[in-house]
Write a structure and sequence with these properties.
Length: 180
């Protein structure tokens, strides 16, 4: 079974993007092995402390190397993606060994989903796609944007419409083919 690594671009306990990720995890049940990437303890990248590689960074690289595909669930922060996501991929754009050029992210297949306000994370998804391509990821050209239902901002419970569920179903099926 293919291994898909889920990256949630929000560490908030009741994150809507985490809720979408949980929904997609259920869609993938029996079709792929899903693992959530734990990257909350990564330090900010600083070339002074790049080598020897910090343990938290090494752990993330191991997870990325071991998966067949990466699914990023990402909120939009001020017309772009959050800093934690940039930091994660900045680390992944760097060589695994000093003086080498091989990175963990090169050639990895990725797809993006974003839950946010009324533009459905359009700017985040565009910019994140640009970043991932720049660091030599193979980005699946079909991303899904979710507009968070109005009540959720009070209840913290995301309720997906049938249309949103259908889009996620399509993305799931197409991404499985893409990584096959
Ligand atoms: C610093 C910051 C900037 C934000 N900027 C945007 C934005 O540009 N567009 C948008 O749709 N939502 C924006 N939001 C609102 C987020 O969509 C909202 O907080 C959402 O709940 C974040 O995703 P999460 O629930 O997965 O943590 C912003 C939130 C924060 C904290």
């Amino acid at each position: 079974m293919k291994k898909i690594l889920f990256v949630v671009g929000s560490h908030r306990k009741q994150s809507f993007n985490m809720q979408v990720a949980q929904y997609v995890k259920a869609l993938l049940d029996g079709k792929a092995q899903v693992k959530f990437l734990d990257y909350a303890d990564m330090p900010f990248i600083n070339q002074d402390t790049e080598f020897p590689t910090p343990l938290s960074v090494q752990n993330v690289r191991n997870e990325i190397s071991a998966c067949d595909g990466i699914w990023v669930f990402c909120p939009e922060y001020n017309f772009s993606y959050p800093a934690v996501v940039k930091n994660l991929f900045d680390w992944m754009s760097r060589p695994m060994k000093q003086g080498d050029t091989v990175t963990a992210i090169e050639g990895k297949k990725l797809t993006i989903t974003g839950a946010g306000g009324k533009n459905a994370t359009k700017n985040c998804r565009e910019k994140l796609s640009e970043l991932l391509k720049f660091i030599k990821g193979e980005v699946f050209d079909f991303s899904v944007g979710i507009i968070i239902n109005t009540e959720a901002w009070v209840t913290n419970e995301l309720v997906l419409t049938n249309e949103q569920k259908q889009k996620l179903q399509k993305q799931t099926e197409e991404f499985l083919k893409f990584i096959d």
